[in-house]
Amino acid sequence: MKTIIETQKLCKTFSNGGLQQHVLRNIDLEIYEGDFTVIMGASGAGKSTLLYALSGMDKPTLGKVIVGDSDITKMNTDELALFRRSNCGFVFQQIYLVDSMSILDNVLSAGLLVNKDRKAVTAKAKEILKAVDIEEHLWKKFPTQISGGEAQRVGIARALINSPKIVFADEPTGALNSKTGRDVLDALTEFNNKGQSIVMVTHDIVSARRGSRVLYVKDGEIAGVCELGKYVPDDKERHSKLSDFLVSMGW
Amino acid sequence: MEKIILLAKANFKKNKGTSIGLLLLIMLATMIIGIALLTFTDAYPTSRTEAERLNAGDGFIFISNNLTGLDDETIGELMEDSVDHYEIFHCMGYNNISLPFGDGELSETVVMYDSRIFEDGKGGFKSDKNAAAIDRIEVVVEDTSITENYLYLPYQFYTGGGVKLGDDYTFEFHGDKRTLKVRGFLNSTYFGCNNNGVYVLILDDDNYATISERDEAFAERVVVNYILKDGVKDSKFIITLQNDILDVNPHAIVSNNNIKTAIGNRSFISLIIAISLLVVIFIMMIVIVMMLASCISNYVRENMKTIGALKAIGYTSSNIRASLICLFGFIAVIGSVLGICFSYVFMPIIAKIVVGQMGLPYVVKFSLFGTVISVGSVVLFIFALTGISTAIIKKIEPIVALRNGMESHNYKKNRVSLESSVLGLDVSLAMKTLFTNMKQNVISFMVIGFCVFICVIGLLMYENFNRNPKVGILTFETSSGILAVDIETKDVAIEYLEGCENVSNIRNMIQMFLNYNDEETLVTYVLDNVENMNNKEVCYKGRLPKYDNEVAVSGMFANNYGMKIGDEIELKYGSNTYKYLITGYIQTCNNYGREALLSEEACNHLLDENTVGAYLWFDCSDKSQVNDILNTFADEHGSHVISTMNFDEILDANMTTFKGIASLMLIMISTISAAIIMLVLYLLVKALIYSKRRDYGIYKALGYTSRSLMLQTALSFMPAIILSVIVFSFVSYFGANPYMSNIMVMFGLMKCTFNIPIPGVIIIGVVMTILAFLFTYINARKIKDIEPINLLVEE
């Protein structure tokens, strides 16, 4: 499989009042094209920090993050913004839609950054919104006027509008109830099945089952990797393989 | 109390930028109030306080031309019924002497004394040496090392005329050219400012003796200073005295000035400046008050979570409000104290504008009243404003505050839909920001608008008092040159001028004082050919007089006495009276709207014009020839020439002070406007970025660059700014003249239209728009500090 992100000796250290906290320690990692990579770990293990470092949202203290031929750790803030614009899509736990914009405009505000063809971008946005089950009558509503699940699916549509190389999802179901959470996971799975690479952080085993590859982060290091293959609903063997892996990791 | 102070300290640390911005605004506000109070209570009244200090009395009369029969005793007898105290002085006097001043020459009546003036109050010519000195002439500054061939000049030559101690000063009168060293400068109530038309020069004894010996026959003058008895009306006294003097000697020419007119003339420009300054200050105060109110309410909004947390842990609303009042009170005290200190630092610059042009010595003094009022009013205002703005805290439930406040935007319409917008992405998003922040738009609209207005006022003053002086309202008539000759030489002079190449429109215009109803004296201009006047603007309503029974009078005078065009008015000169028909209203900013205009034929009903000299005004198409024309005639006819005047040079000199003031005003107004725009935009942009920091974090996560977001922020301010510039450019263009007219009416200008150059207004608008954009863009650099990662970590 083709590697789309590679890290070399990735370290992240936070300083607080003279005390240094090593959150990521010498992580060497590869993310593959088309994978649904799940990052799991206990609270404070460094899983979100790893996600931000991989996506260029945060700069590591040491080490490299290579995307294609570029080491994104050497990019400045604006270069990182341009990198994220065309390579990454983000789905946040707190959703983070812009409240003053309609649903459609939230998606277009990301799409028009990359493609100036307004008609083409609008058509694609509508197509994706339909694909994540956001009905047309909601497009002109504002984020505060729709449900959390709907808003998160709008977030997914926004993440996908530029056909990014990879979608980063940080606890995308964390703020949702089980039903709406499942809808969001279904949407992500569906796009992954169509070839979209996804990296998702979660501490929820139900969400983790959607991954084709599960990385377990412990004390700032990759403690283990579980290869699950493509998600198949109600595959008990697959579920128990993941459970066993997590138990072995001390989860 | 301790916990309130702790809270106040914590609030300050958390909001350093806003606190410092507020401190600067408060400082600016106090500084402006301080300057306004000092200007109105201390600087502007200087002409009055100095007159009182110099014991200027109620006025003076000046007798010239022919003094036969008018000895001191006779004059004393004529005045004794009305005057409580008087002093009579004999001096040398010359009409229309050209005095180098600034860039040109002033043409003024001059009285000359010698050094004996310092020995007994008013000089060796004082008739009654035992009398108390009225209207003392005081040396402001002198160089006593200069002991011969010297003169003292009025202090205005130092403050506005560019003359320094020790300079060689050359002036010419009656064919006599003298160069004397400047030994000192004088402070004189009636003879110290060009606006009053008479200057005093004090010469060393030798020079004075030479001049008086030579010119005594025709240049001796009598100056009478007086203090009226209680209840005697000055105008009536003057008219009676004038008539009595003419009864004794019909060839004597009597002119006068009273204390009210002298002070008014002297402070004419100061009052315009002071009132303009007051309006500017008033507008600025509105802006500052708006900004303070906005800042404090933003402050409360921005700290909503903290307020919620404090309430949750047991702080009462009163504790929290007290801490904010304590904080803002502290900022107000520090800011206002700094502001009042700065007002004393900048006051000398304002004083130079307001007092310097009057030719009066002035030192900025500490004013307890001004200081206490400035600081007190600002501090009290801030306390009240904070009290009102923080009242909302009482209503905030902790849980609501913790959810970031009570405000929840209720978006009803998706403005500037990205799907259908024809604008670029950055501009479309900027327009969305615009529609979601109407408060910012209203404030920037008003602030920019006020700044445009005051800049246009500054431009108007610069254009009309500096670049293209509006001569028509400053002088009664304009020309290229004036040749004043005695009556015997009148015909020769006319013939000479008619023979000169490039000379045209020769007309004789003399000035005389006519009385109305024994109550008012009108400065009356008599022209042999009224239709040939260049300054047609002088008549703003009706028409100029044509026939021998017609007169045009000042609009202000006519208003005061309820006279209308077509009414009859009886004018008096000595014992002669004549009824004239009013044909129109005239105006200049001289003589407080007490002027009239007659044709030569009309004047002959009151005075035989052939008894006075001729003042021949002429136009010359080649300005460079004017001096040659005048000098050639003066060389040929010597003492028959009363004076020669190059009008443009005289105008330049007269305008020197005005020009300086106008430039300084424009610079000051522009600088203050730029400072206000910068400060206001700093606070608005800061508040906007704070309220949109979450959105900016999201945009950055999506891939928007800092520059793009800075551009969006700057663009979001531009529609309100551009609209304001357009609207207020029109308002200012059409409103500046009525505004100035309201001021000018005090000086007898009933209707004036100042030129406002449209390119200048456009430049102001464009520069202001560009500046506002740059300020906004630069202030928006704080967006660079927003990291999308913080958005994620915060939650």
Map the helices and strands.
The complex is a heterodimer of chains A (251) and B (795).
Chain A: E1 3-16, E2 19-32, E3 36-41, H1 47-55, E4 62-67, E5 70-71, H2 77-87, E6 88-91, H3 103-114, H4 118-131, H5 148-160, E7 166-170, H6 178-193, E8 197-201, H7 205-208, E9 213-218, E10 221-227, H8 236-248
Parallel strand pairs in A: 3-8, 3-9, 6-7, 7-8
Antiparallel strand pairs in A: 1-2, 1-4, 4-5, 9-10
Chain B: H1 2-14, H2 16-43, H3 46-53, E1 59-64, H4 72-79, E2 83-101, E3 104-113, E4 138-142, E5 150-154, H5 156-159, E6 168-173, E7 176-187, E8 198-203, H6 205-219, E9 220-228, H7 234-248, E10 253-258, H8 259-266, H9 268-302, H10 304-312, H11 317-354, H12 368-389, H13 398-402, H14 425-436, H15 438-467, H16 471-474, E11 481-485, H17 490-499, E12 503-516, E13 520-527, E14 539-542, E15 550-554, H18 555-560, E16 568-573, E17 576-586, E18 595-599, H19 600-603, E19 614-620, H20 626-637, E20 641-646, H21 647-691, H22 693-702, H23 706-744, H24 758-779, H25 788-794
Parallel strand pairs in B: 3-8, 5-7, 13-18, 15-17
Antiparallel strand pairs in B: 1-9, 1-10, 2-3, 2-9, 4-7, 5-8, 6-7, 11-19, 11-20, 12-13, 12-16, 12-19, 14-17, 15-18, 16-17
